[in-house]
Amino acid sequence: MNAEVFEEWLRRQGHQVYRTASSYWYDAGPRVLQAFPYHWLITPDKKEIRDLMMRRGIIALRYSTPLDFPEGKVSYHVVIHMPYELNSLKSQTRNGVKRGLEHFQLEQISFERLATEGWALQYDTLVRQDRLRSMKQVDWERLCRSAEGLPGFEAWAATSQGELAGAVIICRIDDVFEVPYAMSRSCHLSNHVNNVLFYSISCELLKRKGMSGVFFTVQSLDAPADVDEFKFRMGFEPKAVRQRVEFHPLLSPFAMPVVHTWFQKLLRRDPSNPFLAKAEGMFHFHVEGRYPLAQQTWPECLSGQKESLFNKMPQIPQGGIMSNFDGCQLPNVPKFSTGLAETMQKSLIGRLKRLLAFPWNRYVKKWLKQAYNLTIRRGGVSAQVATKGFAPDTSFKAGDLVRVRAPVEISATLNPFKELKGCAFLTEMQQYCGTTQRVLQVMQQFLDERDYKVKKARGIVLLEGVICRGTPAFGRCDRCCHFFWREEWLERIAEG
Known about the structure:
Elements (H helix, E strand, L loop, with lengths): L2 H10 L4 E3 L4 E6 L2 E5 L9 H11 L3 E6 L7 E8 L10 H11 L3 E5 L1 H18 L8 H10 L6 E8 L2 E11 L2 E9 L8 H14 L6 E6 L10 H5 L3 E11 L9 H13 L4 H15 L17 H7 L8 E3 L5 E3 L6 H20 L4 H14 L7 H5 L13 E4 L2 H5 L7 E2 L2 E2 L11 E7 L2 E4 L4 E4 L3 E4 L3 E5 L3 E8 L2 E2 L3 E3 L4
Parallel strand pairs: 3-4, 9-10
Antiparallel strand pairs: 1-2, 2-3, 4-11, 5-10, 5-11, 6-7, 7-8, 8-9, 12-13, 14-17, 14-24, 15-16, 17-20, 18-19, 20-23, 21-22
Helix pairs in contact: 3-6, 4-5, 8-9
């Protein structure tokens, strides 16, 4: 079997598959690509990555690359090579295999049987891993039936009295067997079904002619740190690699630690949300992958290999190299140089603000807002406004005298994008907080010059003489446009 057969399996499931010079890619999530075969270590150049993203509208992609590659989060592949035998296992694991062999038998089964009877095993596995929302039964059945008749694909199961207790899907790609799925029933764990399943299938595959090894998995983006501990107890080996997560050029300015922290907070509110779990993992791998290996957090399973791996690699310059948003290289800032660090941070923030102001980046902001609204919805007046004891006055008219509310009151109405119902509160507007102004016009429609469409407006007013004269990011502007004010930010004042 070659990679084209694996490609056909993914296409049968309904995935979009792309081919580039270095690898194959499939849509592992909405607008997110994963490289396959999973055991390949690839080094695509920047042009290949950029062309793939720009032409296909891809948000992010993920792939494995060698440990000596300049960038990427230190990670691992779980693999096994010859020799592999029962006597090489630790006593506790060896005894578990022996006891399990008394209860279960390994046999090859049809994919049709796996599609129907195997869902109970897969369901139990997803529940144990708190990932039940990542797959439905119809997805599982389609996944299994898509492998029917494809060369190199096999389904094996550990059975007890004719009942499926555990199962795996395997596929051969060149001289390596991959195990994309493994599952088991929770009620059989006490009888060591997983010990039997993993040991027996490893022995079965390694003894086949022309095989160099078995690839089980790549370190997960969102699974707990101990999810692979069982495999290591079974004698499987962690192979040190780097995992790279790359974002679209328009999204890369947002791939910062502060955004990663925001996703962490959202995930704590909804731990079983697969979208948030994957997004948090992608930001984590991307942000940490920009730092030298010595400054990264190494997986526990690689701690014993760390020193020897460093000795085999070329010497890394002190401080390392960190990628900037534009792809240029900047030296890491020493911790003691706080003034220089602050200067660099301000320059990056200024560049980010200018990027966000470009018309084409409105789509980036729109996507981020949609992702935010999927997790935390704020309908009508925000909860913060209600607790402050004031509500929007919807009866403003031209000529009304109003007071602009204090900064703390306005800040309480804003979302993380510094907006309320799509209307941004700019830094330049803070100077008018606490002042008395007069309403010039109540907005009903306006021309949005970002896409040249006339749009309707509600709850927005213009104030007499309160105009924008430029921003720190772009400098002075003589156009003299009026600021847009939400009615929630204003308080009517009785005249006389």
